[in-house]
TrEMBL record, chain A:
It comes from the Eukaryota. SUPFAM superfamilies: ARM repeat (SSF48371). InterPro entries: ARM-like (IPR011989), ARM-type_fold (IPR016024), Mo25 (IPR013878). One of its GO terms (biological process) is intracellular signal transduction. Belongs to the Mo25 family. GO terms for molecular function: protein serine/threonine kinase activator activity. This is MO25-like protein At5g47540. Pfam families: Mo25. It comes from Ananas comosus var. bracteatus.
TrEMBL record, chain B:
The gene is LOC109722434. This is Serine/threonine-protein kinase BLUS1. It comes from Ananas comosus. Residues 378-391 have a biased composition (Acidic residues). Signal peptide: none annotated. GO terms for cellular component: cytosol. ATP binds at residue 46.
Length: 334, 507
């Protein structure tokens, strides 16, 4: 009887179960380097590769919805995701990449029209802390980072990350000297602050003080060109989003913020100047400018008007010209 | 594992000393440099000017990520990358012999011998097999992106435009304004001046597969195989096929390419002998139907690569003939035959690989006949053209099989969708017939050489056959059209009846 079952092809659930068993073995065995462990590692790599080809299809076949659903269900029935994340540093580079792609795909799989990955993560939020801390380890940063970005596609998960202490760590990660990792961290940061509009608006309102203090002093005032350029772009994206209008009004009512933006307008980088203008124009367009803002505008009126008159984009940009004209009109009228 | 013994390269500019420039592009310069803390290990540093790469930093990020996560002996992997002022420095292994494109243009203007091409292509196939296995598409395979080290080892470089089939496409960035920094080649000294034109599309046009140009079909791994085939021709002839035709920007912007035709294409002058295996291998890569192009793995099993020479052979036969990278760069950027003033503009509707001549021939969709005879190979293309005719027939069948479905819902859909399609098909066939007629007329006019009489007659016969077969197709299509119209009328009648019935029922 046993022989008969052996010849049967493994179901997707079988592959998940076997992967899980191997992960448990690898997790317990530490990092000893005996032959048996090596063998198990090879087997584990093969299983993860197979999970990937079930989920993504391969050169011969397209993925089958039913098989994907089975795999997903089995994967989240038990702690396979946790094991996989924990064991990732022990895997070789190719298997790490496969594992990352498997985790990414699972976030989008529907089982009985539910994203069960989201349910699992909600019950295991500490995994997100683990993924965020991956930015501190060069070897796994890009893998954990890619997984994290997929996980925050779920709104409730993004909310958790935004409201956790993790959010403060991003200000360090964005400035890491290693460009691959720093730029991955800033991609995640941007995703957190733009993807789920209502959640972002809520987060920014509740955390306005510390968040923008950090944002201004750490990112906009950074000596790192790319940090500054990405931050000013992100600031524009956030403030110009309708759902964040309350936050925008608050931001453009602050004298310190205006001074900061005027500094950025004079940055030696043209790209930064232009992005800064898109935020600066909001200060001028504000219908209810606080007196201290008006005072600054009036005191610097001539300088600003002269600067704006010469301020041009490389390519012709009608919208930019129209905005500029409007801003100049506002400033002259004060 | 490779990671364990990987050296840690420092992440600050002070740790490196730049020696000299070895390449430059629109928004980047490549230097030869030494890493001081690592016993002055030699490296190449690509310095990308981020201020000049406009809106899209995402692409820079993707390239850095791709390069950080790839691990294959034939794929150039970055040691590290970091920001220096407004530049991104990418520290890479130094490939002493530079790019194959610069090797070829400095010492093998008429192309490399076949024995030297095979080992290079084989290494590139290993790289492609690895990339494709990762779900990555390189999208810019060409000699300028193939780097050679002094020991003859080969690495594929420049992942600026690579795409992952596993990664969700970037939300909206790609179409708007992609950065120019990605399309410059690593050590390529010549085509960099073109890069500004290529912002809108990935890849470099001469090497680009038809379905990448016709981007609505979508990219596939097989697009790399096409470019690989073009690269083979580039190495064999010393330049990519059709590069004597200047590129215009509209080539990039539009689905139908526009090329300007130069006076003296000098197309068939270099009569070189290539083996059957080589021609066959390249022909398979340049199949119009992407699904017919073999995979990188399958190509590796092709007879052409069976008795391939080693890296040593390259060192002795190729590398010794060329000056060093820095000398080559000092000589100043070389330009490929480009940018001569436009003469006449004709539409190229596609490429046909001409296996006999080992060349890629454009198919012209022209209405006027030109005075100077272009070249005589057009007549040989009729196999392909007939195939196209067949394809159109198949398309028609597909349309007519789709018709019943459409009809079951509403008859008017049939009329709106199908009929215009058929009419335009008919129109295109007419155009083709006109084209063949033109050709025929031209053949009659320009041929007076006695020895070529026979060939010409044969060709004429073939053309006549082709015209007949086209006429036949047109007749068939007419019949089809009439049938469809009848069916349509019938369906409309039915519909009327149903309407009447339902109204009477309501009454």
């Amino acid at each position: 009887m046993k022989g008969l079952f052996k010849s049967k092809p493994r179901t997707p659930a079988d592959v998940v179960r076997q992967t899980r068993d191997l992960l448990i073995y690898v997790d317990l065995q530490g990092s000893s380097r005996d032959a048996k462990r090596e063998e198990k590692m090879i087997e584990l790599s093969k299983n993860i590769r197979e999970l990937k080809s079930i989920l993504y299809g391969n050169s011969e076949s397209e993925p089958v919805a039913e098989a994907c659903a089975q795999l997903t269900q089995e994967f989240f029935r038990d702690n396979t995701l946790r094991l996989l994340i924990i064991c990732l540093p022990k895997l070789n580079l190719e298997t790490r990449k496969d594992a990352t792609q498997v985790v990414a795909n699972l976030q989008r799989q529907l089982v009985h029209s539910r994203l069960i990955a989201s349910d699992y993560l909600e019950a295991n939020k500490d995994l997100l802390d683990l993924l965020v801390s991956g930015y501190e380890n060069m070897d796994i940063a890009l893998h954990y980072g890619a997984m994290l970005r997929e996980c925050i596609r779920h709104q409730s998960i993004a909310r958790y990350v935004l409201e956790s202490e993790n959010m403060r760590k991003f200000f360090d990660y964005i400035e890491l000297p290693n460009f691959d990792i720093a730029s991955d961290a800033s991609a995640t940061f941007k995703e957190l602050l733009t993807r789920h509009k209502s959640t972002v608006a809520e987060f920014l309102s509740k955390n306005y003080d510390w968040f923008f203090a950090e944002f201004n002093s750490r990112l906009l005032a950074s000596s790192n060109y790319i940090t500054k350029r990405q931050a000013i772009k992100l600031l524009g994206d956030m403030l110009l989003d309708r759902t964040n209008s309350a936050v925008m009004i608050r931001y453009v009512s602050s004298k310190d913020n205006l001074m900061m933006l005027m500094d950025l307008l004079r940055d030696k980088s043209k790209n930064i100047q232009i992005e800064a203008f898109h935020v600066f124009k909001l200060f001028a367009a504000n219908r209810n400018k606080p007196p201290e803002i008006v005072t600054i505008f009036v005191a610097n009126r001539n300088k600003l008007l002269r600067f704006l008159a010469d301020f041009k984009t490389d390519k012709e940009d009608e919208q930019f010209e129209a905005d500029k004209e409007q801003v100049m009109k506002e400033i002259s009228a004060l | 594992m490779d990671e364990a013994k990987r050296m840690v390269y420092p992440l600050d500019a002070k740790s490196y000393r730049l020696l000299y420039e070895i390449g430059s592009g629109v928004s980047a310069v490549v230097y030869k440099a030494v890493c001081l803390p690592l016993d002055s290990a030699v490296v190449a540093i690509k310095s990308i000017d981020l201020e000049r790469s406009r809106a899209n930093l995402d692409e820079v990020r993707r390239e850095a990520k791709a390069m950080a996560l790839l691990n294959h002996p034939n794929v150039l992997r970055a040691h590290c990358s970091f920001i220096v002022d407004s530049h991104l420095w990418v520290v890479m292994p130094f490939m002493a012999a530079g790019s194959l494109q610069s090797i070829v243009s400095s010492a093998f203007a008429d192309g490399l011998p076949e024995q030297s091409i095979a080992p290079v292509l084989k290494e590139i196939l290993h790289a492609l097999s690895y990339l494709h296995g990762q779900g990555l598409i390189h999208r810019d395979i060409k000699a300028g992106n193939i780097l050679v080290d002094s020991d003859g080892s080969i690495k594929l470089a420049d992942f600026g435009v690579s795409a992952s089939i596993y990664e969700s496409p970037p939300s909206s960035s790609s179409s708007s304004s992609s950065s120019s920094c990605s399309s410059y080649p690593m050590y390529n000294l010549s085509s960099s001046s073109l890069s500004t034109f290529f912002n809108e599309m990935a890849g470099t046009p001469y090497w680009m597969a038809p379905e990448v140009i016709h981007s609505h079909v979508g990219y596939g791994i097989k697009a790399d195989i096409w470019s690989f085939g073009i690269t083979a021709l580039e190495l064999a002839h010393g330049r990519p096929p059709l590069s004597h035709l200047p590129l215009s920007k509209s080539l990039m912007m539009r689905i139908t390419n526009r090329l300007r035709l130069e006076d003296a294409p000098d197309h068939t002058s270099s009569k070189k002998k290539f083996s059957k295996a080589f021609k066959d291998m390249v022909a398979s890569c340049l199949s119009h139907d992407p699904s017919k192009r073999p995979s990188a793995d399958k190509l590796l099993r092709h007879p052409f690569f069976r008795s391939c020479k080693s890296a040593d052979y390259l060192v002795k036969n190729v590398l010794q003939a060329v000056p060093t990278v820095e000398e080559r760069f000092k000589e100043g950027p070389v330009t490929v035959g480009l940018a001569s003033p436009p003469n006449k503009t004709r539409r190229v509707s596609g490429w046909n690989f001409h296996e006999e001549g080992f060349e890629l021939d454009p198919i012209y969709l022209g209405e006027e006949c030109e005075d100077e005879s272009t070249k005589g190979e057009e007549g040989d293309d009729d196999d392909d053209d007939q195939e196209e005719g067949k394809e159109e027939g198949e398309m028609l069948q597909a349309l007519s099989t789709a018709a019943p479905n459409a009809a079951s819902s509403t008859a008017s859909v049939v009329k709106q969708v199908l009929v215009p399609n058929l009419v335009s098909l008919l129109g295109s066939l007419d155009l083709q017939r006109g084209m063949v007629m033109n050709l025929l007329a031209r053949c009659v006019r320009c041929a007076d050489g006695d020895e070529e009489m026979k060939v010409r007659e044969q060709r004429e016969q073939l053309l006549l056959q082709y015209v007949n077969s086209l006429q036949q197709t047109i007749n068939d299509l007419n019949l089809h059209l009439q049938k469809e119209m009848k069916k349509n009328d019938h369906l409309e009648e039915l519909l009327e009846n149903i309407k009447m019935n339902s109204t009477s029922e309501e009454d």
